[in-house]
Amino acid sequence: MWSVEPLLLSTEERTELEQRVRAEMTPHRDRQRAAVVLLAADGAPGRRIAVEVGLSPQAVSKWRIRFRDFGLEGLEDAQRSGRPLVYGPIDRLVLMAKVTSELPGLTAQRSHAELHDAMAAAGIAISASQIGRILAKQDVRPHKVEDWSSPKDTPEFSELAADVCGLYLSPPENAVVLSIDEKTRIEGKSSKHSATPVRPGRPARSGFEYARHGTASLLSAFEGGTGTVTATDAARNDPAHFTAFLEEIEEKTDPDLAIHVVLDDGSSHISKTTKAWFALRPRFVVHHTPAHASWLDQVECFCSILTRKALRPGEFASRQELVAKLMLFIAHYSESAAPFRWVYDAKMAV
User: Fold this and answer.
1) In a shared domain, residues 249 and 327
2) Considering the domain boundaries, does residue 214 fall inside one?
3) Rounded to an integer, what distance in angstroms lies between the CA atom of residue 176 and that of residue 179?
4) What does the DSSP 8-state code read for residue 6?
5) What single DSSP character describes residue 282?
6) Both 69 and 96 in a single domain?
7) Segment 292-305, tens digit of pLDDT
């Protein structure tokens, strides 16, 4: 029966091959080749090696012969055809360091041309277009900056959030729950060119040039139990106008009901004038949302609806027309309003 002589290994070669098989960081192909040589040195036939290692018999024969003729170097991949790598790992690491670690200097961010100059100063000649290709392949986008705001999960945050959410989920008896906030600097503007209506295959179109007709500020109170909204046009966003709005709410609310008010930490909400106003009216119970968590204020949900439905896009020939349309929309919204389905309870995960 035809057989192949076992491979002869020196002590150093066997130690190196066994280390490649055991090491977790060894590439899979290198581990397979080392296992082929070790099994061949133990006298295992080629078909058995192929089954155990997961290679074809032809591949087992190839790596056995490569090791016999060239030793450990024979287990390396042969030089491939094609253009060699122009920019090696070190060049790419220098580029990534300049993009992710170095400050750009006078400019807020570096262009590919400026990165080309920075690389040239480091002694690496690389074109701006090649820099763009390398960054795109690594999904690195130095020209983009994303804003984020994350409230800290502190005991104070949890307490304030749980207090506000408790009002929504279990409203107190003989009381109304109101979420109050301002929507400021609402622009009244009209397009200089007539808009075209929607067509099959084409959305509605409006010109980018527009005329400004002033701005408006809106004070809104969203009632959590019914979903209705009370609003007024405020000439200024200050404590005087804010407390005047609160007085309107007080007059319209049944005197036998307590008024629980949810507010964020806006300047007119925490001013001395506002605090003194609340101190004289014990029927008002104030609940503040945590810092950077105004999304807990339900009136913000309504303001989002207002923006989408009434303001964007919108044509307002004057400030008066803007305010009139806002009030008309709020009145229409309140006719069929329903409370928001609130599910977040602000309980800390255990």
Assistant:
1) yes
2) yes
3) 10
4) P
5) T
6) no
7) 888 899 999 999 99
Task: Report H helices in the chain.
Answer: 11-22, 28-41, 46-53, 57-70, 89-100, 112-121, 128-137, 155-169, 239-252, 272-279, 298-306, 319-335
Q: Are residues 171 and 288 in the same domain?
A: yes
Q: Is residue 146 part of a domain?
A: no
Q: Which residue has the tokens 């945590």?
A: 290
With tokens 């930490």, the residue in question is: 265
Residue 23 corresponds to which amino acid? A
Other Cβ atoms closer than 10 A to 261: 20
Same domain, 173 and 290: yes
- Please give the structure tokens belonging to residue 309: 């439905």
Nearest CA to 270 out of 157, 180, 186, 151 is that of: 180
Tally of structural domains, the chain: 3
Q: The whole model's pTM is what?
A: 0.63
For 261, the token pair is 């008010």
Tens digit of pLDDT for each residue in 191-224? 888 778 888 888 888 877 888 888 899 999 999 9
**∠276-282-285 over CA atoms, to 5°?**
90
Residue 150 has a pLDDT of: 66
What type of residue sits at position 188?
Answer: G
Tokens 């503007």 belong to residue = 189
Its domain, for residue 318, covers 155-193+210-335
Q: Are 296 and 173 contained in the same domain?
A: yes
Give the Cα separation of 153 and 290 in Å (integer). 10
Q: Which residues contact 225 (CB under 8 A, 6 or more apart)?
A: 171, 176, 177, 339
Please, what's the largest Cα pairwise distance for the chain?
108
Residue 7 identity = L
Which of 151, 160, 306 is CA-nearest to residue 222? 306
